[in-house]
Amino acid sequence: AQSVTQPDIHITVSEGASLELRCNYSYGATPYLFWYVQSPGQGLQLLLKYFSGDTLVQGIKGFEAEFKRSQSSFNLRKPSVHWSDAAEYFCAVGAPPGGFKTIFGAGTRLFVKA
Amino acid sequence: GAVVSQHPSWVICKSGTSVKIECRSLDFQATTMFWYRQFPKQSLMLMATSNEGSKATYEQGVEKDKFLINHASLTLSTLTVTSAHPEDSSFYICSAATSGAEETQYFGPGTRLLVL
């Protein structure tokens, strides 16, 4: 069965430090992968997505993610975190046209300390 | 990027009343829209998939008579919580999916429902 695992419930990093949020998935074929960010009381904003091609994907707000098929991972990274990055981050395995429904991970809460 | 709006952003209602939430794709046509429910500090739970011009497909455990979904056009889907009760209080989020080879969901800002 398809699934998405975000091993870290919450992470705290210092402002200016680098960030990596982990995401592992289980899917029988090459998945469509997404990272979304949710600020408190808000909907989800798409940060980046991977469908095919270059396995290093650039997104908005300075985020990037790398698809590693051998590790079934799609980790999100940012070289220097800003206080405004504090939010909840969701990894998702998406639905190819006519495919299965999007499955979301449980989310990772990012705290940024000054 | 694509923009999805929801209205209202928050609503407080009395127990037993019905509440309608609108979801609109503002700059693209969405043949498919999704309705999610999110409990505090939890991930999104898919409630139903809404296709324009046809009946919505509900997830297991979601009461279709309680959560009425109408996808009247390619840019509008509505969720009506009928005879709302306090346990229906939650954060409801819709998304609209672009079509084509790289289908992507774009999410609305959510609607906070509080049933007293």
Protein architecture, described:
The complex is a heterodimer of chains A (114) and B (116). Helices cover 0% and strands 51% of the residues of chain A. Chain A has no helices and twelve strands. Chain A has strands at residues 3-5, 10-14, 19-21, 24-26, 32-38, 44-50, 56-58, 64-68, 73-78, 87-94, 103-104, 108-113. Chain B is an all-beta fold and 116 residues long. Chain B has no helices and eleven strands. Chain B has strands spanning 4-7, 10-13, 19-25, 32-38, 44-51, 57-58, 67-73, 76-81, 90-97, 105-107, 111-115. Chain B is globular. Classes of the chains: A mainly beta (114), B mainly beta (116).
Topology:
The complex is a heterodimer of chains A (114) and B (116).
Chain A: E1 3-5, E2 10-14, E3 19-21, E4 24-26, E5 32-38, E6 44-50, E7 56-58, E8 64-68, E9 73-78, E10 87-94, E11 103-104, E12 108-113
Parallel strand pairs in A: 2-12
Antiparallel strand pairs in A: 1-4, 3-9, 5-6, 5-10, 7-8, 8-9, 10-11, 10-12
Chain B: E1 4-7, E2 10-13, E3 19-25, E4 32-38, E5 44-51, E6 57-58, E7 67-73, E8 76-81, E9 90-97, E10 105-107, E11 111-115
Parallel strand pairs in B: 2-11
Antiparallel strand pairs in B: 1-3, 3-8, 4-5, 4-9, 5-6, 7-8, 9-10, 9-11
